[in-house]
Design goal:
By secondary structure, the protein is of the alpha/beta class. The chain has two domains: 2-167, Rossmann fold (3-Layer(aba) Sandwich), CATH 3.40.50; 194-382 and 421-475, TIM Barrel (Alpha-Beta Barrel). It is 40% helix and 16% strand. It contains 19 helices and 15 strands. The strands form three sheets. Strands 2-1-3-4-5-6-7 form a seven-stranded mixed β-sheet, sandwiched between helices. Strands 8-11-12-13-14-15 form a six-stranded parallel β-sheet. Helix 9 runs parallel beside helix 10 (263-275) and helix 17 crosses helix 18. The longest helix is centred in the C-terminal third of the chain and has 22 residues, at 429-450. The protein is globular. It starts with a strand and ends with a helix.
């Protein structure tokens, strides 16, 4: 039984974008950790597995066809994110066209919330709901004949039976994440992924799943259901393993949605990193401003953290309330000040276009960031993803067929024509984009002036990408 796990291609390879002179803006991608975890579980259970990462390698549908013909998999698993659901659907159609007998399994955040649509209309045979490491084994065992249990008894899947969609009871959450093997990075040429990105020669790690809060624009907490974490010992063991196996690495990127949920755990992790001598590596993380203080930041600095990303989204208390952020502006002010005091870079995530947004609330946010002076700020546009409160406020029937026509021929840097933008009564999509572009241009140079050392350091790490970003801001209409 051979299994091919696919991270689908960039949308520029699928209609209507494949025939346009101007392509959608690509989204940064690294090693697909989700597929790495699935591959590790399958390999542990004696299955033959390959990962085809089309996104990172720039592969299109032709390369997928070549791989399917040569590898001849029995099962193809396709990871789904809303930003690439069009190419995921195109991948499933291609695979079925090459060999209708191949069973296609979808998983990931988008499939979890949109399983009925994908099963009814888009060539998927099965959808794994939620975390998939244990579910995929039971499903593949059943499909291979290794286990004769009926499909309906496998928890955490959805599938089509005649014209009906069957959804089985949810699988209990994996409470002890330490039982999972490390992602199977060795099934690919992993050195390809150790590049200068957010930090020099970085390797991605996930130390926890989920988040302690339920922000209106984010589906992560609903997908993972509750926050769970690997033990500090397990994380440090993986860091040791990676540092020995990949000596080119110089830093780690923690992809946890919220690194600082459990203070005692963070303290223990930092002390173990220091004890193991792994604080010679830089690392970064995402944190909530109300979950850090001077003592914790000092310890994190000693353990090697070089950058912390804080989500504020808006400096308007009304908008913060509307998006269920449950954060005080004073908390971010204090956290950023302390972070910079300890020599740690502080990035603040900001958004425009959330429910209730207006030119006045955006101005409030802009003026606040100017006074706050974080190392940098990253501004995005509020877009609607399945499984979020924004989706409930502005439902989308079919994300696969959704297209915002004005952006097909004239794509914007920070939105995608195939992702809906939340529409406010005070700001339509075009107005939001124009305000966002003005802000992004302003702060790109503002942070360079207010904190030149940090900005120049990042430019030197990846000069080509930095120059490309600045030019793309200036070239937008």
């Amino acid at each position: 039984m051979k299994i091919l796990l696919i991270a689908p291609p960039d949308n520029k390879f699928v209609p209507p974008f494949d025939s346009l002179p101007t392509k959608p803006t690509p989204i940064f991608s690294g090693f697909p950790l989700g597929l790495g975890y699935l591959a590790a579980s399958l390999i542990t259970n004696k299955y033959q597995v390959k990962i085809l990462d089309c996104l990172s390698y720039g592969f299109g549908l032709d390369q997928i066809a070549t791989e399917v013909k040569s590898y001849r998999p029995d099962i193809v698993g396709i990871t789904t994110m809303t930003h690439y659901i069009k190419s995921a659907v195109a991948t499933a159609k291609l695979v079925k066209g090459l060999n209708p007998k191949i069973k296609i399994i979808g998983g990931g955040p988008h499939a979890h919330f949109d399983f009925t649509n994908l099963l009814q209309n888009y060539n998927f045979d099965y959808i794994v709901l939620g975390e998939g490491e244990l579910t995929i084994i039971e499903l593949v065992d059943q499909l291979s004949g290794k286990n004769k249990q009926p499909l309906k008894t496998i928890k955490g899947i959805a599938y089509k039976k005649q014209k009906n969609i069957i959804k089985t009871p949810p699988r209990p959450l994996i409470q002890n994440l330490d039982i999972l093997p490390y992602p199977a990075r060795d099934v690919v040429d992993f050195d390809y992924y150790i590049v200068d990105q957010l930090l020099p020669k970085a390797i991605e790690i996930v130390g926890s799943r989920g988040c302690s809060h339920r922000c209106a624009f984010c589906s992560s907490a609903h997908f993972w259901q509750m926050w769970r974490a690997r033990s500090p010992e397990n994380i440090v063991a993986e860091m040791k393993y990676l540092s020995q196996k990949y000596p080119r690495a110089k830093s780690f990127l923690f992809y946890d949605d919220n690194f600082t949920v459990n203070r005692k755990r963070v303290e223990q992790l930092c002390r173990l990193i220091i004890k193991a001598g792994l604080n010679r590596y830089q690392w970064n993380c995402q944190a909530r401003a109300d979950q850090v203080d001077a003592d914790l930041l000092k310890l994190m600095k000693q353990a090697g953290v070089s950058k912390i990303n804080y989500g504020l989204e808006s400096a308007s208390t009304k908008i913060i309330r509307n998006i269920d952020k449950k954060l005080k502006v004073a908390d971010i002010k204090k956290a950023v000040g302390l972070t910079k005091k300890f020599g740690i870079e502080a990035l603040v995530y900001m958004m425009v276009g959330n429910p209730g947004e207006s030119p006045a609330t955006i101005k409030t946010s802009v003026e606040f960031i100017k006074k706050l002076k974080p190392t940098s700020s990253l501004w995005s546009v509020a877009q609607i993803l399945p499984g979020t409160k924004l989706h409930q406020l502005q439902p989308i029937k079919d994300y696969v067929n959704y297209l915002y026509q004005p952006e097909i021929n004239h794509p914007y840097l920070y939105t995608w024509s195939f992702i809906p933008v939340f529409e406010n009564k005070n700001l339509n999509r075009e107005q939001t984009k124009q305000l966002h572009l003005k802000i992004s241009r302003y702060f790109a140079f503002y942070h360079l002036i207010t904190d030149p050392f940090s900005k120049l350091k990042h430019i030197l790490v990846s000069p080509a990408k930095s120059l490309s970003y600045l030019l793309s801001l200036l070239n937008r209409p």
